[in-house]
Sequence to fold (173 residues):
Amino acid sequence: MNFEEANRYASERGSFDALPALLDLFCEVPEGVWLKILGQHWSRFDNVAEHLDTLQDFIAATVGIGPAMQMMNATERAAFESLPDTLTIYRGCYAFSKYGASWSLDRDVAERFPFLLRYRQDGRPLLIKATIGKQYVTALKLDRGEDEIVILGQRPKVLSISTARAASREGEQ
Fold:
């Protein structure tokens, strides 16, 4: 299967089916092609947590613990290269998902996630502040303005866990 066929295969699936479909292609396409498609579709996946163990295994098999440059476009690679060696990152979540794959360089972006309808759960919404060496970051994704740091290997060092606060919007009560 070539890049166009594999990309179309992933593109034809919805946000909950695209990642499992792409995982099914892992042994069917060259690893560079698989990583490029993973990066192109990353922001549409709504069920990364369900497949986190498999994703971590596949990333470890291709790039080890560290940057998967093929997951990033040229702009993301340039931005990644300009990041400092140690990053301060944030994750808005709940206790059960505090070590997920998606983090942000932007505190405000991370803090809003537990309050988004698609991610809302029972329990205390958390804001986690952590650090991680750039060499352990899998990818930087910029396509949704979230300054997303993808980590599919080394856990970051947690500095603090606090209760996330819903951002007040003008006109809302």
About this structure: The chain has a mean pLDDT of 92. Strands lie at 86-93, 102-104, 126-133, 139-141, 148-150, 157-163. The longest strand covers residues 86-93. Residues 5 and 51 are 23 Å apart (CA to CA).
